[in-house]
């Protein structure tokens, strides 16, 4: 009993995919909310869409703050990062609003439409790359997603999948996502016993990868470098430097806002597109209505455009189902924290408690989504027998809630639609056939264990649907390369530069010990 009082349920949590365990507990106890104790800290898990809407949306003023987070915040991304900022005092709310306003300037609903031309061209190159090297679809999606946010952020595109900004930044994001999985014993113990953070790195393996200052130096170096180059004055980093005096922005804040831009649109968007390919392989029947609609509305001599969206309700529903079926941010991002004691259906939710939405459970509730593991775009067709009521108009909660909804939601939805529509239009996507004629099966449950989950590597077949379409893809790909030439550029900085204490980086942008 004494051990339970000290460490709570920490050692009860499964190491792998704890969100499924939370879902099972919710069903077992017929409870929308369940409480798990991490040490003496309660973590409340919402496993119901309507409860999540009631608390995070309708009571957003109460639930827009963050709890103290030692691993991800104080030792990782920083408590003064937009993702982790407290909002329980007027001063902290004002700082959070300033950061939110700055990031909205880059990727808010009103901003992302101006990116459609280069986003469309980068999407055209995805189709062109799939034509050339279909087995490398993961690399193509990662290059595409990272290039879009790099153009927005720095005014330069990412031309190759092996550009270090892809390989290093995505690796860092995977590490951060892995560290923050509930059930990871060392991170959870550090949250319970903060004094463990004082141990030197040499004897503290649980602190591996938490060098937040080095990440700050890296992203600030990228921002400073881009701002000093001529051209692309409308880039996000140029906007940050132009607003620096107005908002009294520190270097660490410029770095975190720049890093957040990558978090809002690189790993998450590419993971969504990989899930799209998996769904096509596992549920080929879902592709047939999409092809019929695309052939009728678009035809073979051009690829889809955003102007086609309202004329293709099934493709629109298909994209929504991709976002619902296997959401990337499976527990809705960082935990919320109420700024005061609150009650929900008689249950006390204490001030500063960790409270999280279990997106897996919400998106796999039979009430809203019958047969939830089946990929079924008909759920999103108005009036269809498979459609069910949901507390928001979108029909999914993939990007979080309320005032803490993902900043990059509009950009991600815009890019996901055009790329999914284009790849559906252009390719027959199916399970791979071995030389002996047997089929390589896919596993729809074989996903990574990080907070941003993606399918484990799988083989598939991606081939052009017709010779006419192949010719269109080639023509549009060449045109896209020409139009994207204005964004050609490179950086001399690497994240590994800062982790290895390279003289250029550390002399210019500081030292970890400062």
TrEMBL record:
Keywords: Heme, Iron, Metal-binding, Oxidoreductase. It comes from the Eukaryota. Its cofactor is heme. CDD domains: CYP64-like (cd11065). Heme binds at residue 406. Pfam families: p450. GO terms for molecular function: heme binding; iron ion binding; monooxygenase activity; oxidoreductase activity, acting on paired donors, with incorporation or reduction of molecular oxygen. Belongs to the cytochrome P450 family. This is Cytochrome P450. It comes from Monosporascus ibericus. The lineage of its organism: Eukaryota, Fungi, Dikarya, Ascomycota, Pezizomycotina.
């Amino acid at each position: 009993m004494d051990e339970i009082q000290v460490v709570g349920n920490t050692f009860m949590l499964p190491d792998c995919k704890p969100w499924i365990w939370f879902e099972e507990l919710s069903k077992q106890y017929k409870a929308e909310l369940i409480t798990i104790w991490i040490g003496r800290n309660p973590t409340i898990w919402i496993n119901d869409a309507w409860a999540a809407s009631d608390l995070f949306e309708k009571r957003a003023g109460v639930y827009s703050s963050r709890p103290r987070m030692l691993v991800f915040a104080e030792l990782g991304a920083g408590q003064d990062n937009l993702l982790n900022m407290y909002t329980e005092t007027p001063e902290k709310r004002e700082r959070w609003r300033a950061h939110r306003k700055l990031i909205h300037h880059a990727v808010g609903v009103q901003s992302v439409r101006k990116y459609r031309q280069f986003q469309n061209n980068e999407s055209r190159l995805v189709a062109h790359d799939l034509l050339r090297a279909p087995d490398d679809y993961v690399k193509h999606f990662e290059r595409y997603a990272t290039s879009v946010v790099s153009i927005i952020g720095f005014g330069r595109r990412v031309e190759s999948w092996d550009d270090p900004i892809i390989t290093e930044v995505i690796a860092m994001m995977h590490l951060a996502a892995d560290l923050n999985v509930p059930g990871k014993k060392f991170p959870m113990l550090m949250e319970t016993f903060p004094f463990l953070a004082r141990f030197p790195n040499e004897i503290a393996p649980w602190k591996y990868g938490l060098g937040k200052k080095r990440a700050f130096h890296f992203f600030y170096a990228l921002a400073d470098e881009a701002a000093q180059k001529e051209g692309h004055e409308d880039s996000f980093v140029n906007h940050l430097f132009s607003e620096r005096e107005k908002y009294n922005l520190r270097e660490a804040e410029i770095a975190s806002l720049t890093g957040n831009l990558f978090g809002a649109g690189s790993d998450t968007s590419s993971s969504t597109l990989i899930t799209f390919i998996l769904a096509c392989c596992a549920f080929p029947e879902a592709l047939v209505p999409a092809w019929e609609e695309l052939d009728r509305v678009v035809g073979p001599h051009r690829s889809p455009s955003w102007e086609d969206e309202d004329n293709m309700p099934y493709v629109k529903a298909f994209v929504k189902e991709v976002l619902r079926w296997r959401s990337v941010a499976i527990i809705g991002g960082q935990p919320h924290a109420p700024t005061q004691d609150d009650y929900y259906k008689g249950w006390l939710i204490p001030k500063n408690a960790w409270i999280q939405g279990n997106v897996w459970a919400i998106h796999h509730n039979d009430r809203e989504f019958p047969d939830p593991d089946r990929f079924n775009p008909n759920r999103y067709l108005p009036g269809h027998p498979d459609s069910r009521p949901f507390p928001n108009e979108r029909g999914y909660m993939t990007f979080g809630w309320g005032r803490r909804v993902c900043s990059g939601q509009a950009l991600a939805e815009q890019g996901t639609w055009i790329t999914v529509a284009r790849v559906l239009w252009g390719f027959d996507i199916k399970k791979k056939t071995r030389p002996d004629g047997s089929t390589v099966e896919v596993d729809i449950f074989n996903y990574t264990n990080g907070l941003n989950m993606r399918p484990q590597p799988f083989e598939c077949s991606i081939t052009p649907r017709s010779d006419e379409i192949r010719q269109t893809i080639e023509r549009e790909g060449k045109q896209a390369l020409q139009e994207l030439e204005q964004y050609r550029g490179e950086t001399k900085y690497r994240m590994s530069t800062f982790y290895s204490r390279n003289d250029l980086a550390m002399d210019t942008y500081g030292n970890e010990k400062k």
